[in-house]
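Reviewers asked in the last cycle whether our approach scales beyond single polypeptides. To address this, we selected a multi-component target totalling 516 residues and predicted its structure end to end. The input consisted of the following lines:
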Amino acid sequence: MNGMLIMEQIIGQAPPSDTSQILNLIMVILFLIFLVWGQRLQASVILKDIEYALARLRLIRDEARKTVIERIKSVGKLEGDPSKEVDRYLEYVFIEPVSLDPAGLVWKLDHLLKVAENRARSEAQSLIPQASEVQRQNILNVLEVAQSLNMLYKIIRHYYIMGKKTASYFIIIQLQAILPEVMMQANALLAALHAFSYGHVIGDGAGEIVAARFAQGAEGELIAQDTVVVDVPFNERVISIVKSRGPGGVVGMPGDAVMKLLERDRYDLVIMVDAGLKLEGEKSGDIFEGVGAAIGGIGTEKYKIEEAVTKKGMPLYGVIIKMSLIEALSPITKDILSGVERAFDRVKEIIMEKTAPGARVLLVGVGNTIGIK
Amino acid sequence: MRSLEENSEGQGKRRDFVPMLFFLIIGILMFLSMTLLVNGISRWRDGDLVSMAYVAMGISGLLFSAMNITTFQNRIRRVLVGRSRVLTVLKCLKCGFELKRNFKEGDYIYGQGESCPSCKSQEPLIITSIYVEKPVTRARLGQ
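The resulting structure, written as structure tokens, was:
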């Protein structure tokens, strides 16, 4: 009864009383508060969300650092503490070349990437000299994961502090907008930590498994840094398989290998097999194919392959195995393995469809070859 | 920003202090809310506005406390860690025997495994596949 009376007083159908006047006053005050400080209140709620995500990022980053240190100690049989060296490595930055004059930029980038790679290797060599090459390569992968997480954390922290300092609503909402993707990336990198530490085959190695299925574990000839080529006969044709030299975690230099091989020998067809990111709603392990260089990364290897193939006027096909980012960086699943089988069969079909007996085919397996010979 | 400053000596103490303060405030709030709720319900028969307000405030206070505790729990570091069962599949090239076992460090596809328990041949089993049986599971971290 009283409740009805209050409602009537609020909506103005009953004579005003002390209660309704107090309620009206509260509503007016609340309205004014939200009118003046509404955006600021909203910004502080968003900042709390970002702070929470940042705390998780820091935790993931710390876990990665701890894993690297423990792994280095166990693999390198170290007695001392490698924390100082690890921290120094985590702070390394790659300074991209100037792009004001884009001519020749790819080669500069390629050179700097090789320098960075060699530097990382020599650091790993001096840090864990007792470890085998495969163990060193895997440790380098773990270090790279920790470095990426460190960078991710620092960038998000930078924008968070800037948003807080400047109280800029637009910086804050932009940060909030990208946060789900950043956390997805961080979780994917975290999943990669365990896989790289123990040498598990990861989803990104799907293209390498297809190439390895053709090569059947053959040693092959070293054609470029960490990259081998194996010639195998196939239905009156010859397939030259280019893949990274496993079982350590390397991606090799497929671009250099393709350039050298196309200069050296005559080929009728180039096929590339790689793992690719699926769109949300798509099934992991499905394959799709197309025309062009199926290779990700910074773009230098893709450029080299496209250049070499264009120069020779050769057909270039790509077969891609779909997976999510987290699947690409964590131990390979059954779904992706079935995709590998389908890609293997599809490559055989393409070779039979597109080439005549006596042809030479260049098959390039792209990806991280950790756990695959 | 305070919580983001790293490697400072006071930070550890502050981190310990913050949850204590949080739970103290939440505890006081829950106690007050419960008192209000009980008072509100006991006076409900009179049907006056004050008892209604007590009940409403008590319920709001309890909901607010529960919400904050849940948020705090989530903040206590639950992150996804790769703890999954990885299997290695080995095959004997002579008799076709297939063995599935847990992954051992050093296993790799087209690598060699143990000798074949079926045909007892000298040739080792060949690793044909390595895959994860169950996807990544949630595990608690940082506690």
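The two ends of chain B are 22 Å apart (CA to CA). We regard this as preliminary and will revisit it once experimental data from Aim 1 are available.
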